[in-house]
Amino acid sequence: MNGYLGVDVGSISTKAVVLDEGEQVVAQSYLWTEGDPLGAIKRVLAEMEPQSVAAGAEVVAVGVTGSARELLGAALDAQIVKNEITAHAMGTLSRHPDVSTIFEIGGQDSKIIIVRDGVPVDYAMNTLCAAGTGSFLSSQARRLNVPVEDFGSYALRSTKPTKIAGRCTVFAESDLVHKAQMGHPREDLIAGLCHAIVMNYLNNVGKGKEVRAPIVFQGGVSKNVGVVQAFADITSEEIVVDEEGHLMGAIGAALLARDSGLRAPFEFSMRELEFVTRGFECQGCANDCEVVTLLRAGEFLDGWGNRCDRGIERAKESLAT
After folding, report:
1. What pTM was computed for the model?
2. DSSP code at position 249
3. Are residues 41 and 81 in the same domain?
4. Three-state SS for 277?
5. 83-127: per-residue pLDDT in tens?
6. Torsion sign across C-alpha atoms 106, 111, 112, 118
7. Do 157 and 227 fall within a single domain?
8. Residue ranges of the alpha helices (H) in 123-276?
9. Cis before 147 (ω within 30)
10. CB atoms within 10 A of CB 263
11. Do residues 200 and 217 share a domain?
12. Both 309 and 205 in a single domain?
């Protein structure tokens, strides 16, 4: 059976799936990137190989998306390397063909994708403010001494969410401390945080966008029922959370690889190869390009960050010296 590997590597987590010809997930992995995307993909492949073998799936195409897509696309000899917007839209439409709005909140960034008649027509991303992301939730969970996995259940117990300034992390944290010192119940503080995250998202990422139902909410934060409920309360719409929502970018990448028509044998054993990255400042012209090169088993594999071919050539020359 032909299988299609999709990888979504983010700053916080790395997700991967193998899809069969029927677009069903036959192997999956979700683990922390830990600042080492190359190490993370090796661990992902080790986890997925026995699942793929058990399913009888032979990977014939690879697609990669996420913030480290160039790096892992080169390392995996991927047939397709696509941005997160395209991958998430593709994955979501495969599961929810009637979707009109996609909310996505990850560990470090968030995005909104507007879909009309099965076609993505608009989007926005927020990569500058962490106030509406999973990392922000995690830090506040530690501050309140509540496991982030329990945030949702605490929030649902609240009858009067505390108003928290969610415009940015500095204001939100100071406001949270102030309200906690005033004696607000913990469940109200947590529900207030969930509402603040949603308001931050809608007022920044979703600003100027026409939000229509059906709405699909995905990304790691979609697993927080408190944030899901806050979205439902504020938008007055049903919020759909797919069980595979945390894998949707990887699913989309796998589908894009399948639809590319490009095929090449893929071996999970490639995780045993040694991958090394090297940084190089070209200084060949006023651009001062910062070129990153990837070596596999000591041999130059690929490079990026250059604005002209000379940047790659100078980077190669530096490796030889």
Report:
1. 0.84
2. H
3. yes
4. strand
5. 999 999 999 999 999 999 999 987 777 899 999 999 999 999 875
6. negative
7. yes
8. 134-144, 151-156, 169-182, 186-204, 225-235, 248-260
9. no
10. 13
11. yes
12. no
